């Protein structure tokens, strides 16, 4: 997939203030300081489209970016400084929970995990909740350039093992780096396949 254009459209405070359109949406979320804004900028090859901050939790709103004038990336607030309830609706952010549960335009949520760390309870709690919603999601292990490939593979394997038995099948995952652009093509392929599948279903 080639990214020809990417522009900020708006920020929404809750589900009601999300745009009323039929554009497909692909959301990105993760623990605060997981490198979400850097990843979005890398995907669209723009250095300053999404705000990059050294302060965790900087994103507070649902930020919409229109790509190729046809579909949207949605930058969701991080969940690093709040708690999520197991097996129940997430109470870390009501707007995010509403969006993931009820937004009909949402095709897939990319859940970002820091590949440099062992499994974190906040990530596992969020995934346990998302698994009860039924909305499609893919795991994206970020910052893969920070450690050796062996260490990254070990951490990813440990994380995936911690999910064993949660669902009939483990979710798909992609390892990436905003610095080296590894994983970019794989993420865009997921988006392209979703767009093509939906279009075929409408024909």
Structure in words:
By secondary structure, the chain is α/β, with parallel strands linked by helices. The protein has a single domain (6-194), classed as Rossmann fold (3-Layer(aba) Sandwich), CATH 3.40.50. It contains five helices and seven strands. The protein has helices spanning 36-44, 94-102, 121-133, 149-162, 184-202; strands at 6-12, 25-30, 62-67, 71-75, 106-114, 137-142, 173-175. A seven-stranded mixed β-sheet has the order 1-3-4-2-5-6-7, with helices on both faces. The radius of gyration is 16 Å and the shape is globular. The model is unreliable at 52-58 and 81-91 (pLDDT under 50).
Please give a quick description of this structure:
By secondary structure, the chain is α/β, with parallel strands linked by helices. It is built from five helices and seven strands, in the order ββαββαβαβαβα.
